[in-house]
Amino acid sequence: MRKTLLACLFIFLMSSISVFAQKSMITGKVVDVNNEPLIGVNVLVKGTTNGTVTDIDGKYSISAPSGSTLSFTYVGFTAQLIKVTQNVINVTLKEDSKTLNEVVVVGYGSMTRKDVTSSITTVKADKLNTGVYTDPGQLLQGKVPGLTIVQSSDPTSGTASISLRGASSLRSGAAMEPYYVIDGIPGMSLNLVAPEDIESIDVLRDASATAIYGSKAANGVIVITTKKGSKTDRTSVSYSGYVGFDNIAKRLDMMSASDLKSYAAANNITLPNDKGSNTNWNDEVLRTAVSHNHNVSINGGNERSSYNASMSYLNKEGIVLGTEFERFSGRAYVQTKCLNDRLTLAFNVNAAQSKGKTVSSNKDGQSVFDAMNYYSPLLPTKNEDGSWYNYTAVNQYFNPLSMIYEDSYQTVKKDLQGTGKATLQINKDLAWNLNLSYENEQINYNNYNTIQSQIVNTNGNAYRGTVENKKKVLETYFNYDHTFANVHKLGLMAGYSYEQSDNNDGFGLNVYNFYSNATSYYNLAFANKMDMSGISGYGLETLRMISFYGRLNYSYNSKYMLQATFRRDGSSAFGKNNRWGTFPSASLAWRMSEEKFIKDLNVFDDLKFRVGYGVSGNSLGFGAYQAIQTYGPSGWFTYTDANGNSSLYRTIAAQSNANPDLKWERTAMLNLGLDFTFFGGRLGGTIEYYDKRTSDLIHPYSVSTNRYPYGWMYANVGDIDNKGIELTINATPISTKKFTWDTSLNLSHNKNNVKSISNSDYSVAYIASGDPEIAGYSSNAQVERIMEGHPLGTFYTYEWAGYNSDGVSIFYKHDPVTGERTGETTKDPVDTDRTITGCAQPKLNLGWTNNFKYKNWSLDLFFTGVFGNKIYNATREQYSNVSFVTEGRNVLKSVATEQRATDVQSQAPSDRWLENGDYFRLSTLSLGYSFGKLGNWVNSLKVYATCNNLFTITGYSGRDPEINLGGLEPGIDRRTNYYPRTRTFMLGVNVNF
Amino acid sequence: MLISNHLKIELTMKNYIKNTLLAGLLISSVTACTDLDVDIKSTYTSYPSSEIATEAKMADLYYGFRGALGRRFTEAVWLSSDEFTAVTYGGNWYDGGNYVHSTLHMSNPDDAHVDWLGDITGAITKCNRAIVDLGGESATDESIAKALAMRAFYHFIFMDMFGDAPILDHVVAADEAIDRSPRADVAAFIENDLLRAINSGGLSENVDASTYGKPTVWMAKALLVKLYLNWAVYTCGDVANYEPTLANAKLNDAVKYCDEIIKSGKFNLSDSYRKKFMPTNGYQIKDFIYAMPYDNATAQGLTYARFQYWPKFNNDGGTGTGLLGVTLSKNAGGIFTVTPEAADRFSLVGDERNDIILKDALNTYNITTFDKTTTPYMYNGKRVVLTKNVTLLNPLDASMNVGDNFDGWNQGYRCIKWGIQASDYETYNRNQSNDVPIFRYADILLMKAEAILRGATATNGDTPMSLFNQIRSYVKAPTLTTAPTLQDVLDERGREFFSEMWRRNDLIRFGQFEKDWGLKHVVNPAAKTQKWRRIFPIHRNIMNSNTNWKQNTGY
């Protein structure tokens, strides 16, 4: 109260002074940095109500006493205060450097961009990728330096792989992927978030940012913030929807019936299965897939309460017949303040149900994606009686249409999550937060192979399985923020978290031999047979993680910043001796632009140097019970009792060895960063360097069964290093009233190195990985090796040396001891003839966004690129096998020109099939038009047309150079489980009422 | 404050109760909130203790060889012997050379056919754990006799195939070094364990359903005979130095245990040769002393027919039946051809064993009885005619390519000793239900004959000829009128135990493992002199997890 009085007095005094000062008419013009006039700028004599706005030419006039101060304010621009010393005052307003004041989510809190000391990239909703997308990975591809995302066109799986700042684990899956936090709830299912409901995504990249999430954060943290309602007293209803059309982007050039016949004639081959047809199996299997998506949301509130509710529906067809994805999701969020506005309560309910249908994509010929290429064009689709044509003389050879129509696989997923949040503002500075979340996910698998199935010959086969995953999370923490003496900003946070997942709780049953297909998988009791071995071994896995954490932030005048975090994590998955781990971090930032000597240069709007070091962990990607001795059923034996009656019983065998020392995988990362902004925010960017060292890698090691009851042991061995540089440039090269061009380029380079994979107790010379699944080469076929001193994804193959006089592929021999080429060649290479022939990991990743605005039109061009990597083209290798023709399969057209009919050794894993994987792709082209406000009915209306995957510049001969780069076997272009990549055209509308 | 006193007191009371409750909650929650011991509800963390579970645990000791015997072990022993020659079809079935390496005596430490030793050492560890569970040091030999017998068997397999082996007579401690002991020491250790087991009285003498596939006293004695007959091989030091002329001090012991088995009267040769190897075989076969039970659904791992039969089980989608009178949806692989030298042995007049060889112009078979029909086997309109000799597309081609076409598939005779059922190929992914004999009564008879021929004292009026002719008689082959030579015994063994597990072992004992046969000496003449190939290399995976071991000489 006292302060208010003083302020009133002050204002009164000031205005009294002005009364006595001499008034004169001040005129001038307000322009932006491009010298374009700004219309409607507020001009106010400070401390008075005396004000005006600029006219259409940016001009104003106002009477103001000399010595008073004029304030110029304009939405989106930095306000300026100018003391009246002359009668003409022209002003150039600079655009707000929005980034400096944007709110960045840092985990258990948020802060303004300028105070951030670590490496965090924020992507707002309007900058996310547009397309028929289902998961956040697809939305983020190319937007975040260091975040390598490979998309898949399979409607039931959005991303093929996602990794941040290089692979740093010897386990694949969750162990290599970033950790997701949605609205403060860690580890939530991504299935629950419709892309339309996302407000922004923050990617925590370096260890000083991620360490607050401790043991789960070694691969970075992706924080998703959803829309929360507004405070405008106005309810707004939005609808957004689109319809998309997908087609295959590039087909493999397989032989047609006539190609095959003329090739056979030219090479004196008898085709074993010429049934006189001319079937294009690609045409039979593929379609133009139609997708549509609808999202309606209601959003509103006032100062006290706000709400947001939405419903979304997505139906996404796959281009392969029989593949489809459908999702219905809804959410309701409400937030209100009570207890004298001290307590904020928020409730959120998310629910989603998705249904995915897919086709067989197994090995041994049981893949539609494979068979659509190799199934012979000389064969008809159907027999005369209407049944699917079946040619059984070739091993592992099934009619792809039969697989589509006779073998169905469906997965239904239901997710339900309830979240409650409370924030109690104990006093002005101190707040207590409590977040509670309960999530339940149920997955049903339904599969039926009809009596006519060509891949399962048991007179009809039905499988049903159901699995429930549950997760409880409690997070509670205190935030304390206080600014001392106007310049010392202090922030403290301390908290506790309890998380328990009860996963994989379910069962499944396989039955077979039906009288008819009429009951499909809907009534298992109608089957005549079932085997005990058809029972799925789902078993409940309980994983509990408990953490204590804290953070300290200190900022001196937003010039010098310091942050330190600490987290102590416990996990039930580790050995009794090593269940708890500590994950600290510290980082410093210096905003040099606040220093006088930099300010005087008058170049930088912002210049900040950051340095951070932190340790985070990785405990995901292996079973909850791997550190203890377990036993389970293995085979069967006949037990004969005293009366001589025999029956079958299970034998019991060890399923894991106890390792009481199993502990956390640790990733220590040093990060150096420089943020800079020039020219009034028109040009800005960030350069980052990191050195990431992961130690105590968890990996299943083959252990001597001389010693242990089970041949594998999860142990901590090995180190992987990643070093890299990332550059982001944001610029607005053109900005006029009618036309603007915003562009953002990010480049990242990562160098991965496996430092060690052995120690004194557990050792391997190398880990072979990446079986390209080539017919005739099923053992020792791996084309990659994980070796000390080399990156993950190092190709280790034979070296192709052309052909011998019989026209058979030959390979360079290598000395078994030195590994050097001996100069000789051989048709039958042995293991020691293999050598390093390339690497699957790119040297450079690129993402380049361009946004053009002209009046109401907008045009987005988004490019992605990958450079300096190799791809093992296993698809070309398989389909170049000349013996396929004599067997009755189809091959690539190029076999006629590039392959010798005599070459029976082409399928040996050699560098002949390694290709450069460089590509540059126009990933998104989107044209939009905003109608703005339409009368009293429509607040805003925008329509747009988008094309994804428009063109690709690449030398890669395969279908698509965007190949899985995650896991332990990156960069292999496989055929059985590779869903053909599509090109998408979509039309969309966003309307707000 | 406008609260009345009355209300105040009530509030204080309430606060007291609340605080007490809170304090209690706090204390319990401090321990609860750091508790990481989760309930494990879905798996066993200790071995169940019921009586049948104890049997199940022992069963786990019995069947440690099932996986290897069903496939990879046989790739090593069949293909490296004169029984089978592996071929490849175009590029198919080359598989990094796994099969042809064994055939050409070019095995290396990366070949899958030697990648099963972990099963064997794992089974030994299980034996030792079972011994600990049964009392360890204080257990009587009687109570641990079965574990001793199995431990001896697994050591035997290791030593016979790979030479020096670790002597694992206890559960190895976590930091204890394990070294391989000389083969002779391992043989002595095996002998000792077997004698302990036999003399303890802990092994059953019954031969019925309840003892089938399990270590009985007869199994232990048969193994002892096998060990004694090969004693000179195992104790000669360097395996490359072994000569069949070396003296064997254990021959009389071999005869002694043969006699105990013969005299028991538990076994005979009353079953027909063909029926013994059909999917319906089992404990009722009087010739089986010890066998590995397989079942296409519950005891999987046996896929012999996949490799031994003609490659196709159907008729090109056209008319006519397949080789077995029915059309099966899954094909065979058919890459193991009968070596001409082996095929020649199956030419005795009237010998029932001749029927296991598929040769020349084929007729179809009845899949139920496995009798040959009079219907010619036509594939895609063409009569299938197999050639005895294998002709490679390119002579001297170490990938053994015969081409992936009708001509290629018809190279070489095939073997149908191991009959299949339709469901093996329709439902169970080529898994068969035939039990595989490891020790047979017929083997005991021929081993006794051989031991006497090598110098053991004849007993019980048996002569090599009388023993030999027991075999000839039951298979309706001509009997001998003069004493058989050692070579006769080896050839008879080649007929009687064809495609079982002993041919490699026999050839080494007779000094004939380096002889010329099939295309081995043509494509890889070096094999003639590389006597160190009498044992296989230790697979790279095993070397990686036993870093102190030395690879076998030559590899």
Primary descriptors:
heterodimer, A: 993 residues, mainly beta, 22-stranded antiparallel β-barrel, five-stranded mixed beta sheet, 12 helices, 52 strands, globular, B: 555 residues, mainly alpha, two-stranded antiparallel ribbon, 21 helices, 40% helix, disordered N terminus
Give me a quick take on this structure.
With 993 residues, chain A is mostly beta strands. In chain A, strand 13 (179-182) and strand 14 (185-186) form a beta hairpin. In chain A, helix 7 (368-374) runs antiparallel to helix 8.
* Distance from first to last alpha carbon of chain B: 95 Å
In whole angstroms, how far apart are the ends of chain A?
Answer: 42 Å
Mean pLDDT rating of chain B:
91
Shape of chain A: globular
Radius of gyration of chain B: 29 Å
Please compute the radius of gyration of chain A using only Cα atoms: 32 Å
Q: Report the structural category of chain B.
A: mainly alpha
Roughly how much helix do the residues of chain A carry, as a percent range?
A: under 10%
Number of helices of chain B: 21
Percentage of β-strand residues of chain B: 5-15%
Helix proportion of residues of chain B, in percent? 25-40%
Main sheet specs of chain B: 2 strands, antiparallel
Q: Count the beta strands of chain B.
A: 12
Strand content of chain A: over 45%
- Uncertain segments of chain A are 1-21
SSE-based structural type of chain A: mainly beta
Largest interface, counted with CB-CB under 8 A?
A: A-B, 92 and 96 residues
Identify the quaternary structure here. heterodimer
Shape descriptor of chain B: globular
What are the SSEs and their pairings?
The complex is a heterodimer of chains A (993) and B (555).
Chain A: H1 2-20, E1 23-32, E2 42-45, E3 51-53, E4 59-65, E5 69-73, E6 80-83, E7 91-93, H2 98-101, E8 103-105, E9 110-112, E10 120-124, H3 136-140, E11 147-151, E12 159-164, E13 179-182, E14 185-186, E15 198-204, H4 207-210, E16 221-226, E17 236-248, H5 257-266, H6 281-285, E18 289-301, E19 306-317, E20 324-338, E21 343-358, H7 368-374, H8 400-406, E22 407-425, E23 430-449, E24 461-484, E25 488-512, E26 529-530, E27 541-556, E28 560-571, E29 580-591, H9 596-599, E30 604-618, E31 630-640, E32 646-656, E33 665-678, E34 683-695, E35 698-702, E36 712-716, E37 719-735, E38 739-756, E39 767-769, E40 784-786, E41 794-797, E42 800-803, E43 809-814, E44 821-826, E45 835-839, E46 844-854, E47 857-867, E48 870-872, H10 874-878, H11 883-887, H12 895-898, E49 914-916, E50 919-930, E51 940-954, E52 982-992
Parallel strand pairs in A: 1-7, 13-16
Antiparallel strand pairs in A: 1-4, 2-3, 2-5, 5-6, 8-9, 10-15, 11-12, 13-14, 15-16, 17-18, 17-52, 18-19, 19-20, 20-21, 21-22, 22-23, 23-24, 24-25, 25-26, 25-27, 27-28, 28-29, 29-30, 30-33, 31-32, 33-34, 34-37, 35-36, 37-38, 38-46, 39-40, 40-41, 41-45, 42-43, 43-44, 46-47, 47-50, 48-49, 50-51, 51-52
Helix pairs in contact in A: 7-8
Chain B: H1 5-32, H2 51-62, H3 66-70, H4 72-80, E1 84-86, H5 98-103, H6 117-133, H7 141-162, H8 183-200, H9 217-229, H10 231-235, H11 251-264, E2 288-292, H12 304-308, E3 336-338, H13 340-345, E4 357-358, E5 360-361, E6 363-365, E7 372-376, E8 378-379, E9 382-383, E10 385-386, H14 406-409, E11 414-415, H15 422-426, E12 436-440, H16 441-453, H17 464-474, H18 486-496, H19 503-509, H20 520-523, H21 540-545
Antiparallel strand pairs in B: 1-3, 2-12, 4-11, 5-10, 6-7, 8-9
Helix pairs in contact in B: 2-6, 6-7, 7-8, 8-9, 9-11, 9-16, 11-16, 16-17, 16-18
